[in-house]
Amino acid sequence: MTALTSPGLSDAMGQHAGTSRQDGGTEIHARSAPDDNVDPAEVARFGALAEAWWDPDGAFRPLHQIGPARLGFVRDVLCRGLARDARQIRPFEGLEILDVGCGGGLVSEPVARLGATVTGIDLASDGIRAAQTHALASGLVIDYRAESLEAVARRGEVFDAVLCLEVLEHIPDPAGLIATAASVLRPGGVLVLSTINRTTRSYALAIVAAEYVLRWLPRGTHTWDRFITPEELQSHVEACGLEPGQVDGLVYDPLRDHWSRATDTSVNYILAAQKPK
Amino acid sequence: MQQPNASQPFDVVISGASYAGLSLATALAQSLPGIRIALLDQKPLVARSTNATAGNAATERSGDPRSFAISAASRHLLEAIGVWHHIEASSQPISAIEITDSELDAGVRPTILSYANATSDGEAASHIVPGQVLANALAEATFALRDITPIAPAAALRHDGGAALANVRLADGRDVEGRLVVAAEGRRSALRESAGIKLVGWSYEQTGIVVTVAHELAHDGRAVQHFLPSGPFAILPLPGNRSCITWSEATPEARRILALDDVAFLAELDRRFGGRLGRITLDGPRASWPLEMHLARSYVAPRLALIGDTAHGVHPIAGQGLNLAFRDVAALAEVIIDTLRVGGDPGGMDTLKRYERWRRFDATVSTFAFDSLNRLFSNDWTLVRAARDVGLGIVDRLPFVKTMLVAEAAGLTGDLPRLLKGQAL
Fold first, then answer.
1. Distance, in angstroms, between A85 CA and closest chain B CA?
2. CATH: 1.10.1090.10, 3.60.110.10, 3.40.30.10, 3.40.50.150. Which one for A18-274?
3. What is the pTM of this model?
4. Does B218 touch chain A (CB under 8 A)?
């Protein structure tokens, strides 16, 4: 049992997101202005890990491990909220989904395989480059961009669902991110958030165990006071006019080396909310 | 029916439309509508046109003279994919199992172990099902599913596992692309060989003889296994006064027996049969094949999984070969479906390793257990004979050991895939 979250950071927040992209999209630069809702030290640290994103036994092993449990939640809440047939192999066919803080694409790719048209954004351009390379090799078409959520919102782009998984605990202003995410949802759209609860258990597991004892994550990946309780998250969500929905805990069983969904939200948890129609 | 070179690759390409391949294709297509499955076979497969045509084609194809002891776990899988109700009327539940250990011409065969063949839930631990009935029912279920694209006749020659897709090259030069390729091709598998997976194994110097007989008296659902010095001789009850004989014999003796005319052949059969069911007559053709055991060194390679006889072959002593194949099917179907449901890659190495971890240990243990059982019983040494009779005699007096034996035969032990518990995927 341990808590984890992605070194995925980075989502892309930034009120004046200094991101530019040259024509052709081969050169991507991410710059951050000092007042961005971004911690530049975190962007640099995770960018350095980009190469390792897709190694299932590498630095991001915990994210590979937790993947099926959180994607199962995404599948269920999106099918329910957006009236999709969950029995179908590609239930997200025709949906436009934004993956905020997509990192190397560990969530974007499966969501694309489920049929969605996916846009993945992250401020760490190394991660975006790793994601683009991997998607190409996987035969998937995903619109990856090293830019901020604000930039997406400013262009007036809207989506059927916004996913923001293991991101909130890495940024200074989670409420601001949630408000911007809500603004890019279509009416009836679904927001999915996952993060780490702020409890004694989460300190013991997410920081002491995961970073110091098991060394799953580099030291300094998480800062305990950036963790958010489910109640706080629900009130952030309600404050921007969304209706909070299902909340599941994501629980690690050390004996089976397996993550599953459970009612215990004391460490990792995942939450859905829906924009009124 | 799609064309093999349709622009969209298949999610799963299954090579081999026998019991394992048909049941895997059916389980996958029923669980996840929209899945793209290609089913390759060297013999023609009839696409679902009319039921009658499909039925005829299946009958032609199979012609399998064997009957199988379908365990309760395998029956659960067949129920879950909706084919058991087509089979049930032609199947015979086994009410009891009797094991004797005897010399060839012994007039009275001492029973050393007998037990009621019901699990703790009261269901029969196994049914005897004619192979042809099973093949027909599976083929009809498969052809009723429009997500399955038959590609046949087509011989799969070579498998290349790439980063995102595998390519299967057919003998006629066509290519079939899929995210995962499953080799369900039987013992001789071109795809397994092209992936460089070696077999380990050995021949038993025994030949299996199969024939159906009719008899005067009712068998009451009792299955009998005579452990004769040259190998096991099983009498498996079929509906009516009929039984399927599965008989292992040292190869030179088997050759002699198989060359006999019907009258002399029946006389040899009669020497071994034991007189309890009255007069017996032949009720079908004889079939035979050399007995051997084999294990693939690996069950997976990049974008390739092996199931059934392609992965392992066991001595037929306990009638478990097909049940092991159904265990592979249930485990692989569950791993594939659970992976596809969350947008995963069904041919990714982490997915394939999950399947291999789940199945390999069980299949290896079974292979060696049946091998040891055969070695223990296929000899005429007085000392070994005494030891095994004492052993089984002890078992005969211990009800809980029998309960365990029945549960094991029912296939209901261990970490069971959902299909073997009769649950939907």
1. 10
2. 3.40.50.150
3. 0.84
4. no
